[in-house]
Each structure stands twice: as structure tokens, then as C-alpha cells.
Amino acid sequence: MTAAPSTVTIRPLGTADPAAINTLLDEAFGVDRRRRTAYRIRDGMTALPALSFAAFDETERLIGSLQCWPVALDFQTPLVLVGPVAVVPDLQRGGVGRIMMTRMIEAAESTRADPLVLIGDPEYYGRFFGFEAHWTKDWSVPGPVERRRLLARVPEGLTLPATGHLGPRLHNPGL
């Protein structure tokens, strides 16, 4: 691991080269990443431009990407699936992912986006971003998942159904 660059610029994901994004995702998660449950949950969906970001270093090299997807619980309760959150391997744990997550949450709050869900480390995403497994403990997903890693971040005053199946959203809003 190398420390994060002194300058990290966050821009909409659409400003990054799609081939560079795919290379980054392969480097961060492996070429078999498409077999993961998260890919099944968002199958057929288009990433939400207003909530998807790219991180660049001072040389304009792509060093991170964060994608968000329209999904739903039982095709009725709209949610946003966060991820993948990818950082080039030699910069992982250097703060780039946290910068992108902070930007995405700010954008989600300012646009009053639907509640956020993700599959990730509860100690990290809970501590820094308020995600918790309380909401998701009895949800089903289209593939294997460690129950403790299926997390949601719900705006104050909202609630989510206790049960249901998480999958693609019938209507893709394309925020």
C-alpha cells in the first residue's frame, strides 16, 4: 500500500474512460468479479450518473471508481446499490475510497436519493458512513452473501421492509 496522492480529484464517472474503469475493476476485484452477487442484484441496470464517481491523481490517472445502481426490494421499494468501490491496488487503504464514498453520500443526500445498500465490511461502512445490517438481516439476494455484510443506510425518518428480495429495479430512473 502506498499513501494516497496529495491531490485527488473526484469527477462524475462519465468523465473516465470506460476501458480504464474495467481495467481498474479487474485489478481491484479480479477478472471473475462479474460472478459476484452484487452483479446479479443490479443485472440489466445502468449506473446512476449523479451518484457514480471517478477519482484521478495529479497526473490525471484514474485511481478509483464508485458506481451506484437502481435496485429494489420486491420490485416495489426503490433503493440504490452502492458498489463496486474500486481503488488501484497500490493505493488501497490510503483514503481514496473514503473520499469517493463521502462525495457519493453528499450527492445522495442533496438529491434525496433512495436509501443506500451495499455488500461490504460492516466495521468500515458502519463506522464511517452509517451503514448497518439491522435493515437487511431478513432480505434475500440472488446469490451467496455473508449476512453481516449486506448493509443499508437509511435516511432519518424512513424505514424499510423487514423482508423481501433485493434485485433490479423495474423502472431505471437514471438519476
UniProtKB/TrEMBL annotation:
Protein name per Swiss-Prot or TrEMBL: N-acetyltransferase YhbS
Listed Gene3D superfamilies: 3.40.630.30
Family annotation (InterPro entries): Acyl_CoA_acyltransferase (IPR016181), GNAT_dom (IPR000182)
Pfam entry (one): Acetyltransf_9
Organism of provenance: Sphingomonas vulcanisoli
Residues annotated as domain N-acetyltransferase: 8-161
Superkingdom of origin organism: Bacteria
Coiled coil segments of this chain: none
